[in-house]
Amino acid sequence: MVPKLLLPAVAGQRERTVDVDSEVAMRLRRAGQRYSTGRRGIVHALRALNRPVTIAELIDATPGLAVSSAYRNLAVLEVTGVVHRIVLGADDHARFELAEVLTANHHHHLICTGCGAVDDFTVPARLEKALTDALGAVASATGFAPTDHRLDLVGTCAACTAS
Amino acid sequence: MVPKLLLPAVAGQRERTVDVDSEVAMRLRRAGQRYSTGRRGIVHALRALNRPVTIAELIDATPGLAVSSAYRNLAVLEVTGVVHRIVLGADDHARFELAEVLTANHHHHLICTGCGAVDDFTVPARLEKALTDALGAVASATGFAPTDHRLDLVGTCAACTAS
DNA sequence: ATTTATGCAAATCGTTTGCAAACCT
DNA sequence: AGGTTTGCAAACGATTTGCATAAAT
After folding, report:
1. SS3 per residue for chain A
2. How far is the CA of B66 from the C1' of C6 (A)?
């Protein structure tokens, strides 16, 4: 089997942007939900920001988005598999990004303990596979059924190291 | 520049329980803090529970621990490197456990999306090393200075799979 | 004796919810 | 029309803080 092509986190997303909307629409429709203007705004904002953002960041990157709608819609988008919620860093605050099924971009996170910023990175396919295998072994040994794994790097980003 | 070394994988965990108290006392003293009865209670509870617990769990596992003291002391214990805060799962809620420097036990987490339970596991030393190396490479390429990594498995635990 | 930690109750702040209006199909 | 989504403001809850007392050195 040919390993999925490895792309830098930023580039992996570009070629599918065209059909993201219809993919989202489909997923929502399947769940009896509508792809309303507000939801479209959220999805577009997430795509533009292209990194895990907090709800606060999302709200002021999305003109006219009410707080309650942000929460409600992110919840809907989460259960329909459109966005992915990640909870990172000591600064707590959940962050959201488009789900990997939409970006075709399996990645991990760099978490800066200095400023709380979160960025994406990828690891070599070989290691990714070794990880998956090892985790599968752990899982089957314990009766745990994995749906996903998370690999994050915690430390200080270049900017915070400088200061 | 060579990236800072990450923690090596270590298997044994039980042998250091005896001097945990003095180790904690030392770390607190170094920070100008006291190892009070309340803090001792928290550390002992964490050691007894031996898994990442929420503040609520900790409070009712520790008789006479006031809510505010729990928060304040966990904050102190966190910055002094005695406990480690982890934020996992969609159920949010931070969890705390004794820091790895005290348990000599580098491990990862199994997170059940069904019941929110969190458990520990370890991966083979070889994989742990491969991970560390790969992450070091990623880090030095981006100017990120890693202090730690996190590898978690997300899925459904045996109990939740059954139901 | 002086400094630090504790408990309680009040204040905070992110998140959730009730409800009426706007929206979509 | 019939059901869904939205915005506002009120409600909620976990976390934090002020302050007077208790404990530690």
Report:
1. CCCCCCCCCCHHHHHHHHHHHHHHHHHHHHCCCCCCHHHHHHHHHHHHHCCCEEHHHHHHHCCCCCHHHHHHHHHHHHHCCCEEEEECCCCCCEEEEECHHHHCCCCEEEEECCCCCEEEECCCHHHHHHHHHHHHHHHHHHCCEEEEEEEEEEEECHHHHHC
2. 8
